[in-house]
Automatic annotation (TrEMBL):
Superkingdom: Eukaryota
Annotated PANTHER family: VESICLE PROTEIN SORTING-ASSOCIATED
InterPro entries: Sec1-like
Gene Ontology biological-process annotations: vesicle-mediated transport
Name of this chain's protein: Sec1 family domain containing 2
Length: 538
């Protein structure tokens, strides 16, 4: 094992899981599958299973159970062993022929005590005991049909997806979002009048909803496990209301207090509310190839931070129709390919132009190792040039196998450079600069009036125009940059015009994207009916 770090923390966790999966049917939920994807890859798990008759399966209530030839199951879960999760476990086990079940949870027993409303004083008395896990073990044996069968429930902190040795993501908490000023009203609705909150600055852990408090405690549990692996005594800093609450909860977390007594190292942990960087999230100022790849290529199903790379052009199949359901999509994570990981880390750390040149260099070196007839060319790197290098590997199974990771990153680069959204990225950047200049010189109303002509219904839009999602991105950018401002008559009129234009854009869409359906809560036909009814009434 390497020196303590983010990557070794996750690897150590997965080694504990891999030690349990031999000849087992393995069920994973999405967050744990993503952690495996970035840490060591599904191939490593399949190798550890060691039996072609014991596949990997998605954990869900309707998941296929185990046959008589599959007596062992391992469930790897990022969520609490409570409620629907336990119900799904029961359904899968009851319709299977398992005689040995292992349940791995990414959340500590202390968090499960919190979820079961065990008071802190009572939880302290249970130190070293795991009654919640033991009760589930008994239930598993009952569901398997015999108390003589074997059941294990254990905690392994599979919190992180290590994208790089110095960068890790938490897919299980992708939906955790900081509190906004308007959330104070919702929090006050559950509080007596004498204890009502005046602002976000007054929010503490006791003011949070039970669901948010539990989610926050789950995050704290994982972070405490990471600090334990690193052997550090953390000093926490926070910027933002929810970050302050999380930092305080980590400081007061009972297992963390015990850990800090023996820790030899020190670390500073900075929590920052995501709302404080909305401008960076929706802006197009980053000159990074990876940012563009993730923005324009389709998302890998079930993942929050990886994309699908079309690999068809490396096969003998000639058309997209022929390749359907035959060629699996490529991706960015190359856990078991050291050369590809080196290229990936270079892409993360360099600017766009340097990253594209690095892709060319790796493709040239890979082709040279396979003695492929590569023609060197200097100067500016073009998508056509990279494509010609990739095509050298076509139908050469040995070369494809040896350099699959490099080729996936190479094709991701080519497909991003050719994607029409990449050209739109530059237009976004130009318009954002214009908006910044207008905000400084003229104010918010002038900026909104500049945006108004761009709000075009689908029938009037060309490929160069902005769609509904892109208009929302621009609005978020504008309001994030402006911060607080005073609404006067001109601004009020400009806002109303933009609102009406956006409603018309939404209503005339042939089909709303999943994101827009989530935002509006309606499908397109329902919006159109309400819009028509409104005009008839008026």
């Amino acid at each position: 094992m390497s020196a303590p770090g983010v990557l070794s923390f996750t690897q150590q966790g997965w080694e504990q899981v891999l030690a349990k999966v031999k000849r087992a049917v393995v069920y994973l939920d999405a967050a744990c599958a993503e952690s495996l994807h970035w840490c060591c890859g599904s191939t490593r798990l399949v190798e550890a299973v060691g039996s072609p008759g014991c596949p990997l399966r998605e954990f869900e209530p309707k998941a296929v159970g185990g046959t008589a030839e599959q007596p062992k199951a391992v469930f790897v879960l990022s969520c609490l062993l409570k409620g629907r999760t336990v119900e799904a476990l029961r359904d899968i086990v009851c319709r299977s022929h398992f005689r040995y079940c292992v349940v791995v949870t990414a959340l500590s027993h202390a968090v499960h005590l919190t979820a079961n409303h065990v008071p802190a004083a009572a939880a302290a008395e249970l130190e070293g005991q795991q009654p919640v896990f033991e009760q589930l073990e008994e239930k598993l044996c009952e569901w398997m049909g015999s108390m003589n069968y074997t059941a294990e429930v254990l905690h392994v902190p599979l919190l992180l997806s290590p994208v790089a040795p110095y960068l890790a993501l938490t897919p299980a908490f992708a939906s955790l979002f900081p509190l906004l000023p308007q959330d104070v009203h919702l929090l006050n609705s559950a509080r007596p009048d004498k204890r009502r909150l005046g602002s976000l600055g007054e929010v503490d852990s006791t003011a949070l909803t039970p669901e948010l408090m539990l989610q926050m405690r789950c995050l704290v549990s994982g972070l405490s496990s990471l600090c334990e692996h690193l052997g550090v005594r953390e000093e926490c800093f926070a910027v933002g209301a929810l970050s302050r609450v999380i930092a305080a909860d980590l400081a007061n977390y009972a297992p963390a207090k015990n850990r800090r007594k023996t820790a030899t190292g020190r670390a500073s942990v900075v929590f920052v509310d995501r709302t404080l960087d909305l401008t960076g999230a929706v802006g197009h100022h980053g000159d990074n190839l990876v940012e563009k790849i993730i923005s324009v290529l389709p998302q890998l199903p079930g993942h929050t931070n990886d994309v699908m790379v079309n690999m068809v052009e490396l096969t003998a199949l000639q058309t997209q129709e022929e390749s359907q359901n035959v060629v699996a999509p490529g991706c960015l994570a190359q856990a078991n390919d050291s050369a590809a990981r080196a290229l990936w880390e270079a892409l993360l750390n360099t600017k766009h132009k340097e990253a594209v040149m690095e892709v060319r260099r790796h493709l040239v070196e890979a082709a040279s190792r396979e003695n492929l007839p590569i023609k060197m060319s200097m100067g500016r790197v073009t998508p056509g040039q990279l494509t010609s290098y990739v095509q050298l590997f076509k139908n050469n199974l040995k070369a494809l196998r040896n350099h699959c990771g490099i080729l996936q990153l190479g094709l991701a680069t080519v497909q991003t450079l050719k994607h029409p959204q990449t050209a739109k990225w530059d237009r976004f950047l130009a318009f954002e600069r214009l908006l910044l200049q207008s905000i400084g010189e003229s104010g918010m109303s002038v900026v909104l009036n500049q945006l108004l002509p761009m709000c075009k219904p689908s029938a009037q839009r060309t490929s160069d125009d902005y769609g509904p999602e892109e208009l929302l991105v621009l609005l978020i950018y504008i309001y994030s940059v402006c911060g607080e401002f005073t609404v006067d008559k001109d601004l009020g009129e400009a806002q109303e015009k933009v609102k009406k234009a956006l409603v018309q854009v939404f209503c005339e869409e042939v089909e709303l994207s999943p994101l827009l359906q989530k935002i509006t809560g309606k499908v397109c036909s329902n919006i159109r009916k309400k819009w028509n009814l409104r005009f008839k009434t008026e």
